Amino acid sequence: MLELFDEDFDAMELAEGALALNKAVNPHTQVDWAQAELDRLVNEAELALAHEINEKQRFEALLRLFYYDWQFQGDRDSYFRSENGFIDQVLEHRKGIPVSLGAVLLFIARKLGFPLSGVTFPTQFLLKLEWYGEKPIYINPFDGELVSEHTLRAWLIGHKGPLAKLESKHLEPTDNPTVIGRWLALLKSALLREERYTLALKCTDLALTFVPDDPYEIRDRGFIYQQLDCHQIALSDYQFFIDQCPDDPAAELLKNQVNAMSQTLVTLH
């Protein structure tokens, strides 16, 4: 398995870092094809925008090209499908979620020189466009629509409750390692829903290279091992979580699980 470190992601565009992550999770990821397709889209965009002189009009033309001509779109029917987290699949099917669509658009836009960056807003990934001397513009990469601060406040209240306030920290550009870390969590959740436990286990092992001994990640690993019938390892992981987080509500439930599994193992032996 690849070992991925923060400095690798900082040296890459987000889409390239995501491809490295995708490859580490699933060796069948079409990395070379995806990189070639990203480069092809950049070249096609350069030709399509060549007649535009005004930078703002060029960017609007890029959004039209991306969402209408190329028909990239948010996957409304199967939002949590794991394919939406793999860049090669997003490029092939032209469907994704905010972070994967945003990574592709960000790659193309930055290659064309646009002042675009990624933001991990509490509810979803956003793109931030900063023209010199002007107020930032926020774009929802799921559909390419501009998002007002009023809408962002509403999203935040819906996510955190009526007392939540929109703060500048919510809208600061995010470094690639942080985005990749959240991407990894999304991939793991999707793979667990699909009961693809071997790939989900790779996600957990990768996460533990970034944050060793994270009790919540180890708890999730225990669940995966249990599904893979590796009960002894699952028991060890569950017990680690119980010892590290005794006051967590899940600890009491896991104690019952550990007792039941331990009795089953004793009976089998």
Describe it.
The protein has 269 residues and is an alpha+beta fold. The chain folds into two domains: 6-171, C8orf32 fold; 213-268, no CATH class. The chain contains twelve helices and six strands. The protein has helices spanning 6-10, 14-25, 31-48, 55-69, 87-93, 98-111, 149-160, 176-193, 197-210, 215-227, 231-244, 249-268, and strands at 73-74, 95-96, 116-120, 125-129, 137-140, 145-147. It is globular.
Secondary structure layout:
Blueprint: H1 6-10, H2 14-25, H3 31-48, H4 55-69, E1 73-74, H5 87-93, E2 95-96, H6 98-111, E3 116-120, E4 125-129, E5 137-140, E6 145-147, H7 149-160, H8 176-193, H9 197-210, H10 215-227, H11 231-244, H12 249-268
Parallel strand pairs: 1-2
Antiparallel strand pairs: 3-4, 4-5, 5-6
- CATH-defined topology of the largest domain: C8orf32 fold
Helix count, per DSSP?
Answer: 12
Can you identify the CATH class of the largest domain?
Alpha Beta
The whole-angstrom Rg is: 21 Å
Largest sheet, described in full?
A: 4 strands, antiparallel
Strand order of the largest sheet: 3-4-5-6
**What is the SS-derived class?**
alpha+beta
Net shape: globular
**H/E element string?**
HHHHEHEHEEEEHHHHHH
Distance between the termini: 34 Å
